[in-house]
Amino acid sequence: MKVAIIYKSITGNTKLIAEEIKKELSSEEIVYFDEPKEAVEADVYFVGSWTDKGSCTPKIQNFLKSLANKKIAIFGTAGFGGSKEYYDIIFNNVKKNISESNEIIGYFYCQGKMPISIKEKYENMVKENPNNIKFKSIIDNFDNALNHPNEKDLRNVKDWISSIRDKF
Ligand SMILES: Cc1cc2nc3c(=O)[nH]c(=O)nc-3n(C[C@H](O)[C@H](O)[C@H](O)COP(=O)(O)O)c2cc1C
Q: How far away, in angstroms, is 82 Cα from ligand 1 center?
């Protein structure tokens, strides 16, 4: 079974998840582990991205569009959310790039810390709008994301791989 692990990660969160997947799949033939590239031939594709505007990055969108008749597992990290409902929304946006000839064998998301510049932006918004609860909760979420992906997230990756193992 040839496995490709393809991902986009700017600050390293999604890369950590990709590395954990690679570790878990050490008994398989990993033919590729890196950023998207054309003509990567495999049976199963683990495709990951950081979250941008509620979906995966355009490079990953294009890569997913190029796949046909493959088994695909999606993974990623997101700064906001932290709930299944939120990850389902992201996954459904990512899924729009996958043609029906493929089989989606599963998906995994967890939170990923964000750059401090994002916090500063929301802190300024709170200063300008001190009564806006929404901005305050975004800052709380920022702080919550700071230690992710953490050990528990990586254990969850392990469990996720076990749960989809019989599909490839
Ligand atoms: C420009 C920018 C846009 C972002 N947009 C979103 C978003 O729409 N939704 C979200 O949940 N997180 C968003 N984030 C947070 C990142 O997806 C998150 O921090 C992710 O873990 C980064 O992954 P990486 O370390 O692999 O690059 C954004 C971050 C940046 C810098």
A: 13
**CA 106 to ligand 1 center in whole angstroms:** 21
pTM score: 0.95
Q: Can you tell me the distance from the alpha carbon of 114 to that of 140, in angstroms, rounded to the nearest whole number?
A: 12
For a pocket test of ligand 1, which of 15, 17, 51, 93 has the largest count of ligand atoms closer than 8 A to its C-beta?
Answer: 51
pLDDT tens, position by position, 7-45: 999 999 999 999 999 999 988 999 999 999 988 999 999
CATH of 2-113+148-167, one of 3.40.640.10, 3.40.50.360, 3.40.50.2020, 1.10.3570.10: 3.40.50.360
- State the Cα–Cα distance between residues 10 and 44, nearest whole angstrom: 24
- pLDDT tens digits, 95-116: 999 999 999 999 999 999 999 9
Packing angle of the helix pair 13-24, 151-164 (nearest 10 deg): 50
Residue boundaries of the structural domains of the chain: 2-113+148-167, 114-146
